[in-house]
Design a protein that fits this description.
91 residues; mainly beta; four-stranded mixed beta sheet; three-stranded antiparallel beta sheet
Length: 91
C-alpha cells in the first residue's frame, strides 16, 4: 500500500493538530482561533495558513513545525521530507 504525501491541519479549542500517515502532532494554539480556512504555502515544515479568529476577519498566520518536532525528539528532516502538500481538514 502506497503512503500518502498529503498532511492535514485542523484545530479544536485551544489545540491544533497536524496529521500525516498515522502520526498526529497536537500543539497549543491561540485561544481565539476558530478554524483554519486554507493552506497558502507549505515549505518543509513551515506553513502559511489563512485562519479565522473570534471577532477578527480572516488573516494570514504562520506555523513552524520544526521546533515542535525537535521538542518531541523527532527528526524533523526525515518526517517532513515525505510531505508534499498540506490541506485543511475538519471532520
Amino acid at each position: 500500500m502506497q503512503k500518502s504525501t498529503t498532511a492535514f491541519l485542523s484545530s479544536k479549542g485551544n489545540y491544533s493538530t497536524f496529521s500525516f500517515n498515522g502520526t498526529t502532532l497536537t500543539f497549543l494554539t491561540s485561544k481565539n482561533l476558530e478554524r483554519y480556512t486554507k493552506v497558502k504555502k507549505w515549505d518543509n515544515g513551515y506553513i502559511v495558513v489563512m485562519a479565522k479568529n473570534k471577532s477578527k476577519p480572516e488573516h494570514e498566520d504562520y506555523i513552524d513545525l520544526q521546533p515542535i518536532l525537535e521538542n518531541l525528539y523527532m527528526e524533523p528532516k526525515s518526517f517532513l521530507s515525505k510531505i508534499q502538500n498540506v490541506e485543511v481538514r475538519y471532520e
